[in-house]
UniProtKB/TrEMBL annotation:
Residues 1-21 form the signal peptide. It comes from Segatella oulorum. This is Gliding motility associated protien GldN. Keywords: Signal. Residues 293-348 are annotated as: Disordered. Pfam families: GldN.
């Protein structure tokens, strides 16, 4: 009797083990799918320990915020647009932002916020965009499944994103006595043809905090050369090193008002150069004006330079040669000696 019980128990254990076991290939495939799905999702540890996600301090003695327009047809920014369709885990900037938006903060994603008519960013709860509302507003195809919303990679309109707005802060941190330039926010711009084919219409999609997506940007690679495919770096390094190029289209003045445009193109270009020069001048003169010297050594060097200049001026004065002196002396002698008179006698 006991022997039958042992046999029955062994048979049950064998059946449970066989039913619960999975082939190694199937387990590996499931694990790979999970890793691929969570490849760009942000873990809590990544959000807390990412080294470059330092927010701009409010306790600064100098700060200038500017808004730039990055065109993806510019050679410096073209790497942000490729690949158009994700390939082998690589994706362009908009596809990455889109997937983070769809995931949401609860699943390792981020929140995105409305683009207002004045172009200002506002990171508040009432300005957050719901993913499904975003899909419906911009006519992006999706399907609902038991596991959630499914969007095919080919339906993500990354090819229609031609430009980006970025907010950049240049500031001097008195705590560390250092000057910084940091990207604060990103805004992709969708361009679509009009219904009647008369042109294109631009749709700024949303604002997203740079610090929220910085850990995900560190995982994605971007090509920085059109000739060398091996020359790549992370998207985070691309923005941290300021390898992008874009014109300033707006800035904040002391009254809190914005200047989105300044008349014709020549006036706007002149104002852009003026703002760039202001920031560069402040950065170069943090430790004083290099043109003004106030130390004892610099004053001595300045006096020495003045003495050299005076000696050079004296050397440039004309000096009379001996030949000129003899000529002048002979002319003087000829002028002071009376004329000689000779008398000739005639014979008679």
């Amino acid at each position: 009797m006991n022997r039958k019980k042992y046999l029955l128990l062994a048979l049950l254990l064998t059946m449970v083990t066989a039913g619960g076991a999975q082939p190694p290939a199937r387990r590996a495939e499931a694990a790979a799918k999970v890793r691929k799905t969570n490849a760009n999702n942000l873990t809590l540890r990544a959000k807390l320990t990412f080294p470059t996600a330092n927010p701009v301090s409010e306790d600064v003695v100098w700060r200038r915020d500017v808004y730039r327009e990055l065109r993806l047809d510019d050679a410096a920014n073209v790497g942000l647009a490729y690949p158009v369709v994700p390939t082998d885990g690589n994706m362009n900037l908009f596809t990455l932002l889109f997937k983070l938006m769809m995931a949401g903060p609860a699943r390792g994603g981020v929140n995105v916020y409305q683009y207002r008519l004045d172009g200002q960013e506002r990171f508040a709860d009432d300005a957050r965009i719901k993913p499904l509302t975003f899909l419906d507003d911009h006519h992006i195809f999706y399907e609902k499944t038991d596991k959630g919303v499914h969007i095919d990679n080919s339906d993500i309109p990354s090819a229609e994103v031609k430009r980006y707005y970025i907010k950049e802060s240049a500031y001097y941190d008195q705590t560390t006595a250092s000057f910084h330039r940091k990207v604060v926010a990103l805004c992709p711009i969708l361009e679509r043809d009009d219904d009647f084919g008369h042109g294109t219409t631009s749709y700024p999609l949303f604002w997203v905090r740079y610090d929220d997506v910085a850990p995900a940007l560190a995982k994605q690679r971007v090509r920085t050369s059109a000739l060398n495919q091996a020359e790549t770096m992370s998207l985070a390094d691309f923005f941290t090193l300021h390898l992008y190029r874009g014109k300033i289209y707006k800035t904040d003045n002391l009254l809190g008002q914005t200047r989105p445009s300044l008349g014709n193109d020549s006036t706007l270009t002149q104002e852009q150069r003026h703002i760039e020069q202001e920031i560069a001048t402040f950065e170069s003169r943090i430790w004083g004006d290099p043109a003004r010297k106030d130390s004892v050594d610099s004053m001595a060097a300045q006096q020495q330079g003045t003495a050299k200049a005076s000696r050079k001026r004296e050397e440039r004065k004309p000096v009379a040669t001996p030949k000129r002196l003899r000529r002048g002396a002979s002319q003087k002698a000829a002028g002071s000696t009376p004329a000689r008179v000779s008398v000739r006698r005639e014979r008679h």
